[in-house]
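User: I'm putting together a small comparison set for a docking exercise, and I want a reference complex before I start. The sequence is below, and the ligand is adenosine-5'-triphosphate. Could you produce the 3D structure with the ligand included, as structure tokens?
Assistant: Of course. I'll restate your input first, then give the structure tokens for the complex.
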Amino acid sequence: MEINTLENDTGKVVRVLLVDDEERFRQAIARRLERRHMIVSQVPDGASCLEYLSTHEADVVVLDMKMPGMSGMETFEAVNKYHPGLQVIFLTGNAGITDGVEGIRAGAFDYLAKPVEIDHLAGKIRQAWELKRLEAARERDKIFRRRLEKRMIHTQRLASLGTMSTGIAHEINNPLAIIKESAGFMRTVLADSDQIPEKKMLFKGLDKIEKSVDRAGRITHQLLGYVRKHGRDLTPVDIRQLTEDTVVLIKQKTQAKKVSVKWDTKPGHPMRMYTDPFQVRQVLINLLENAVDAVEPGGRIRLSLYRKDEAVCLEVRDNGSGITPENIEKIFDPFFTTKPNVPENESGTGLGLFVVHKIMAALSGSIQVESEPGQGALFTICLPEWHPE
Ligand SMILES: Nc1ncnc2c1ncn2[C@@H]1O[C@H](COP(=O)(O)OP(=O)(O)OP(=O)(O)O)[C@@H](O)[C@H]1O
Ligand SMILES: [Mg+2]
């Protein structure tokens, strides 16, 4: 006789829970199923079946319909409710065929009449197990697709917000320049005149106007993301060199907080991206500034470079506060910030990562983030590699 092994592709074996009040019958069936390479657990009634399932895993339940206490049907309903992925095969007496049909209607996998032909039962168990795995795979697929769809909607939303924000930033730049110029003019007139009362108050007001205009200017500047008027300029960019130059640019900020910025990967052959250096520099500034903001004084930022498929990837890792799972969904949204919004402060507009996302999409690159609260954060950007002709 052929041994009916039920090992699946990962080497696991089907786990059967046998629920029947006749002990000798149970023992005999269990022994024979075990000989067919199944893991069989046994319980004598419905209540112990539920108790067993609350602490153990099983794949298929073989359930006697007629049991003292909780009936097979009642047990089935509870199993179905609390362990919806489980498959159930009913065992009925010869006279209980209508019960079996009722069981299938209620959602059981199948029913078999006693006395049971063991290979028939083993075959049914295997089929039920396959169905269970298929349904689990479908469920995983559904969740994966839902997540993908959500991410795509998010990316599309960010892309259209990106286009709109660039337009608005352009429009706002002109009136901002006029306000700034007029404030400057009023300051000169005020300084030259002796007859204007409340001069001090007026200067204060002008200060506020100028500071706010500067902040608004920083926002539009950020939103324009160094997009050059004549389109993007793609050239081979030595990313290690560009990163090092950018680290020098933000030196003031790192030194003020005594933050170290070091490479984890040794310099080797230059790794070249085919990209726009001005926009990538903007991305690097935003990522590095965020890392500096996130760490404690004396904190560490680590950089690594590697090739992956047809891309060059740069990792920016910090040992700062990390990001909560709830916030990680929102960090690329415009104006999402956890930083105090102080008008004079350069930080805290919540546009940094929005702009990073926008630039990466425009440059056919990608950005990923991994983080846990208290464990720092890792941002990875990948851009197409440049190949010399
Ligand atoms: N490396 C990081 N570690 C921890 N949190 C981070 C990190 N990078 C970003 N964040 C979180 O993401 C939020 C959004 O970042 P983003 O750069 O878009 O705006 P911001 O830094 O708050 O403001 P701005 O960039 O204008 O200074 C931050 O407020 C912070 O909560
Ligand atoms: Mg930022």
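Residues 286, 289-290, 352 surround magnesium ion (ligand 2) (CB under 6 Å). Residues 1-11 have pLDDT under 50 and may be disordered.
User: Thanks, that's exactly what I needed.
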